[in-house]
Amino acid sequence: MVRDTAPDRRKGGVRLQALEELYQLYSPDIYRYLCGLTHDPVWAEDLLSETFLKAVRAFGRFEGRSSVKTWLFAIARNVWVDALRRKRPTLSFDDMLAGYLEQDMPDPRGLEEECDTRDLARRARLLLEDCKPNARTVLLMRAQGYSFAEIAQACGITENSARMLNFRTRNWLREQLNLEEGSMQ
Fold first, then answer.
1. Which of 34, 61, 142, 146 has an alpha carbon 20 to 30 Å from 183's alpha carbon atom?
2. CATH architecture under which domain 9-87 falls
3. Rg from Cα positions in the chain
């Protein structure tokens, strides 16, 4: 039986038997976890395969600072987040960000809106570079349509923390954009 704290390593690789045991031991739990994230058993199976493929490739770099199970779950989460990124519809980043920031904003504009929207998104993107990485990630993921549960999972924070970071970052960004706009007039 494989120990849960460190994989069996050999010169130049790992034992195939150890990898098979890891798969037998942990794949049911990881599959259930991925099913819970994707709500799609077929997609979860694909992600499970990709998770173990990545684990095999990274097996020699496992340092044993966590259990093998924890390490595999982290790989599964990262594989899921990567798959979500690939699966998102292709909308220009500026249009998506501007649309998200303009939600709940007063002063709906006329036909000139498209140029103003792109300028707003460009300025917002520059301002976001000054944000803390977690705040920026939360806002951008939310703008891309991720749920707060998905954002929390990807960032390793609670769902309420994701909501609060989004609220604060969005308000800060609006204030900064309004300040910029006021100084341009």
1. 142
2. Orthogonal Bundle (1.10)
3. 21
